[in-house]
Amino acid sequence: MDLILDGIIKAIKLLIAGDPEVLGITWLSLKVSGTATLISVGIGISIGMIVALTRFPGKKFVVSVVNTGMGLPPVVVGLFVTIFLWRNGPLGFLDVLYTPTAMILAQAVIATPIVMGISIAALQNLPAKLRLQILSLGATRMQMVWLLIREARLPLMAAVMAGFGGVISEVGASIMVGGNIKGYSRVLTTATVMETGKGEFDVAFALSIILLVLVFLVNYLFTLIQQRERPR
Amino acid sequence: MKMFKKLTGLMFLSALLGAFCISSAVAAPAVKNIILATTTSTQDSGLLDVLLPVFQKDTGYFVKTISVGSGQAMKMGEKGEADVLLVHSPDAEKKFVAEGYGINRRLVMHNDFVIVGPPSDPAKIKGEKSAKAAMRKIASSSSLFLSRGDNSGTNALEKKVWKAAGPSPAGQKWYQETGLGMGQTLSVAAEKKGYTITDRGTYLSLKKTLGLEILVEGDPLLLNIYHVIEVNPAKWPKVNAAGAKSFADFMVSKKAQNMIKTFGVEKFGSPLFFPDAGKKAEQLGM
User: Fold this and answer.
1) pLDDT at A169
2) CB < 8 Å from A in window 35-64 of B
3) B232-242: per-residue pLDDT in tens?
4) Domains of chain A: total
5) What DSSP element (H or E) covers B36?
6) Cβ of A42 and B13 within 8 Å?
7) Averaged over A64-82, what is the pLDDT?
8) What number is the ipTM of this complex?
9) CATH H-level superfamily of B33-110+223-283
10) Fold of the domain spanning B112-222
């Protein structure tokens, strides 16, 4: 019990004192996972839409591959990305291993199938006749796409939240491709693992609380967008 | 089909946006990066947090510390994925250098390993002078022993002591491998009331949360020696050889050695590491 109280007190102290290291770690977490989510939303929703709205042979196979990707273990992604980014690996010339860029890359790989999978389900769930109706009212294809996205806004925002939640809480890939370097590639989750290893349980607990608060705030923002009254 | 074109455009745009975010969010990679692969104990004890800022300020290099077990650190060196190593697994290091992967192996510092366990001490090893005898007692009483099991320097030392003591404990019910770092392995030992071998530095920095006692110490077999090794640039041309040499030189410099000598004195009452630059490993005594 003491530990939990100590942790909460420590978290509040760290935040109020504005500890530059903790603030830096928190900001980097947000930046890395935010950018990764942005990339995954761009790729996930657009490909998800193509898959959902067209018919092609092998579609069920493609959808099940995407759905499998939703459960991609972060450590597996971390290992693959590390091997590719090694100096002497296929993408070694990029020289990005142990940088925040590598973490963004790995996290985007983790989040994209999550966003894509939920997007496909969301768009397939729209009434099939809706497209015809929109088109018959004289909308261009692009307008139709936009209207469909608006129509599926609730589940699509859920896709964004799931993607963000998946990467902000992820530690396996970040520690492997980022290296948990102090003041450079250390994020809230990797710092928590390290502090636990050092036996600094109160600091680890404080970092966990900061992470939870951060995730809550971001999701609250997303939810506000999601639940906004529809303009009629 | 027009929709596809537009969608591909949209995708392209979002990828561009992502790429833009990457380039703006992250400073361009400096050419002055050094990758230091090291054991967990140098990081977990906080020693590198003290040394690295000074080195970086003096030289302008940026050190990327990858803290893993000594075994993994040497594997990274073998693949040319690290520039310089700070490790504590002498037998493996000698092999590493002999096989041409590393050059300029230099002694940096030492401390010692200790055998820790629950105060109840079911195997009655407290005060035992010989590590071998202590291990035999743990084995014959089938008391729980936690091994790192991760090819780290500590794990290599532990295996060496077991080998000296007698038959291998692998596969015995009382012998469990955690596969975790030293700090976490100590926590497991504390929770399960088992014995383990740890470097003194990590033990001291965790002591307050553990409830484990030092039971055996002072055997010359338990010496813990840290060397710095530069990865051989002849084998891997992409290695930052100048940076590696600069870091290794710094570790054995008077400045760093003095910092090592006083590190931890304030917090623990005694130093965690003893500087040894210029000495030979054979000269070290307990």
Assistant:
1) 94
2) 35, 40, 43-44, 49, 52, 62, 64
3) 999 988 899 99
4) 1
5) strand B33-38
6) yes
7) 94
8) 0.79
9) Periplasmic binding protein-like II (3.40.190.10)
10) D-Maltodextrin-Binding Protein; domain 2 (3.40.190)
